[in-house]
Amino acid sequence: MARLLAKHGRTDELRQRADAGDRSAADRLFELLAEQDRTDELRERADAGDGYAAARLVELLAERGRIDELVQEVIAGTRGVLRLVW
Length: 86
Hints:
Elements: H1 2-7, H2 11-19, H3 23-35, H4 39-47, H5 51-63, H6 67-76, H7 81-85
Helix pairs in contact: 2-3, 3-5, 4-5
């Protein structure tokens, strides 16, 4: 189901399923947000304690060469960021 929702860009439904604990929906949601360069939402979810969102945010920033934002994530103590920059 998550794959189908992602294929059709149904972020609201993916978000609901992810919030209910559906890990597959969360993974697809994070990939969709990354594809849409929606770092703010990834950051919000990471700040709320979602380690998977934090990891995807850090990967996205690194992939896009957004060093200043990566530095801010290091300062904020975002999980997984040091693994990428170390």
